[in-house]
From TrEMBL, chain A:
GO terms for molecular function: 1,4-dihydroxy-2-naphthoyl-CoA thioesterase activity. NCBIfam families: unchar_dom_1. InterPro entries: HotDog_dom_sf (IPR029069), PAAI_dom (IPR003736), Thioestr_dom (IPR006683). It holds the Pfam family 4HBT. Residues 46-120 form the Thioesterase domain. It comes from the Bacteria. It comes from Oceanospirillum linum. This is Thioesterase domain-containing protein. Keywords: Hydrolase. GO terms for cellular component: cytosol.
Length: 153, 149
């Protein structure tokens, strides 16, 4: 599976410093080591909600793609996030995203963000549209899934 | 000066002068995504520059959906703080975004409507567009927990 390569070609994920820890057909685990540009509130040293939104959107979008038999473009339809407790500066964020349901047109996912295991910072539901394998650029599919590239991972 | 005194001063100063730079410096993430703001009469117009680092899909290319969400959440928070002249950053309880069109690599604008402001909760709706206001790329709503006075 080419999830690491998928993330490596997304400039915003590179700018934030996002990493893929593990991925299968139903779950992914991403990590995001702390960086100064993640701060939303300098005085209270808290992580910005936009960083959490990007981590959730990317992880949920990745698990949606992982659940499909072939690579398909899956733009986000909607994303809803509950912020359960503040995310503090200086500590990494982790995001575990899971498949809820795959239908012919839509993939339903959910995700949770935490800094310490068992203490969720945020949780989200995100739904994605399946555009179909035919609408996906061939280069994208080849770049991500060609067995010749597997050694890079 | 206490934290809330200095924040209150910063917010009233922004409200009075219409100059946003000092307030935006308090939010490193706003600089990271290229967010600016200007006060136009009774409206605040937020803008996000099409920085290369804001790209999600490089093939289309398109803005990352998470960046659009971060931009709209920041716009909602700043709009609420400056229009109500609050002395602390209100907490986001929940954030909901609907993506209507893909975000092109060009400037993105956002305006906010304060739908409801109560003692404890404020609800803000955000509209983001590129071509014109009537063609939004995303709409969002945010529930905020207001600090006790």
């Amino acid at each position: 599976m080419g999830v690491k390569r998928f993330i490596a070609v997304l400039p915003q994920c590179q700018a934030l410093g996002m990493r893929v820890e593990s991925a299968d057909h139903e779950h992914v685990l991403f990590s995001l080591p702390f960086a100064e540009c993640h701060i939303g509130n300098s005085r209270k040293q808290l992580i910005h909600g936009g960083v959490i939104a990007t981590l959730l959107d990317t992880a949920c979008g990745s698990v949606a793609v992982c659940a499909l038999p072939r690579f398909e473009m899956c733009p986000t339809l909607d994303l809803r996030i509950d912020h359960l407790r503040p995310a503090v500066a200086g500590k990494a964020l982790y995001c575990r995203a899971s498949i809820v349901q795959v239908t012919p047109r839509i993939v339903f996912t959910e995700g949770v963000v935490y800094q310490e295991k068992g203490r969720p910072v945020s949780r989200a539901v995100a739904n994605f549209m399946r555009l179909g394998a035919g609408k996906t650029p061939v280069e994208m599919d080849e770049a991500l899934f060609s067995p010749n590239n597997e050694g890079e991972e | 000066m206490t934290y809330s005194d200095s924040m209150a001063q910063l917010v009233s100063e922004t409200q009075r002068s219409g100059h946003w730079e000092t307030l935006l410096e308090q939010i490193p993430y706003a600089g990271f995504i290229g967010l600016t703001a200007q006060t136009l009469g009774d409206e605040i117009l937020f803008c996000m520059e099409p920085l290369e680092s804001n790209t999600g899909n490089p093939l289309l290319p398109a803005l990352h959906g998470g960046v659009i969400a971060g931009f709209m959440e920041t716009a909602a928070t700043l709009n609420l703080m400056v229009s109500l002249n609050v002395d602390q950053v209100p907490k986001v309880i929940d954030f909901t975004i609907d993506y209507l069109r893909s975000g092109k690599m060009k400037p993105t604008y956002a305006t906010c409507i304060l739908s409801r402001q109560g003692q404890r909760i404020a609800n803000v709706q955000v509209n983001a567009w590129q071509k014109d206001r009537e063609t939004p790329i995303a709409t969002a709503r945010v529930n905020f927990l207001m600090h006790d006075k």
